[in-house]
Amino acid sequence: MTTAEIPLRSDAQAGLWAETLARRLSYLQASLAEETAETREKRLAEEISRALQAVAGNKRRSHLDALAERFPTWQMATVSFDSAGAAPTPQTPDELVTALYGVAGQLTPERRASIAERLAKVGLVKETGRVVDGEALSEIQKRLKLAPEDVIDPQRLGRLFALLADMACMLDQLGWNVWKAVAPRSVFRRDHMAPELRVLLRRSLVGETEASSTQVFQQIEKTRQLVSAMLASLDAAGRGFAQSYQTHYSPEAIKEAVRAEGKPGLFDNPDARAWQCYAERTGQLNAAVIEAEIREHLVRLTEEFAHGKNR
């Protein structure tokens, strides 16, 4: 048996248990600062009693002694538990899992690996030999059209993620800044309460419950809709402006407008009237008006594409 496979000694188990519980008690004590002393004592005693449920009866005294060392001024005798003369009670699998979960945060990476290896030997941990598996692997295979037998290189996966994450964060910031400038009154907006994408990704990767995978997906999907809609609208906006210009200012349009007016007199000059019509129509046409019209086409089409109204 190697050193890594030697189980924790009883005093070490008690120390880890006491350290974890001591932190919870400190947080609880701080949160109850405005409560009465009686209420605080009751809540702390309940927390200790609850933690003791995962400890075998014959080991509770040593665990409480370890906890008392961290709070030497506390009266631990107020916590009621049955240990006098009690025969050792075998722990259930659920109790063992709960106890392991309680100390997992205090374990070193080496110790975690050792425990995982021992659990794998008895079939409680499944070794897949893959850097990702389950739903994550299925998602990658679907998105990149990988075959089931393709093995993912973890180093390349990490570099690829970093590169794509950086690009997504850049597009997220740039896309919404441009859209805000182009369409300040548009109802298509990102959630103003949502954090910066880079912050959301960082919080999600470290496992914060407030930054779930669903939130990351929704924020990236909203940005994808905006960027793809803006790109798709570029060609359509140019085509729409060209059609609008041709409808109002082309020679055919001017001639049709003159014909529709009829001949006002015997000495009518159609060319002169055509020039007059053109001059009237283009009199207010300048760079600002043209830019505003192009922007109007762009905004309208982007909103339609983003909402799926114009595929």
Describe the structure.
The chain is 66% helix and 0% strand. It has 311 residues and is an all-alpha fold. The protein has two domains: 3-121, no CATH class; 154-311, no CATH class. α1 packs across α3 and α9 crosses α10 (251-261). It is elongated, with a radius of gyration of 36 Å.
Q: What kind of assembly state do the chains in view correspond to?
A: single chain
Termini distance? 66 Å
- Which structural class matches the secondary elements? mainly alpha
β-strand number: 0
On the 0-100 scale, what is the average pLDDT? Answer: 78
Shape: elongated
Architecture blueprint of SSEs:
Layout: H1 10-31, H2 37-52, H3 60-70, H4 93-104, H5 109-121, H6 134-144, H7 154-182, H8 197-205, H9 213-249, H10 251-261, H11 270-282, H12 287-306
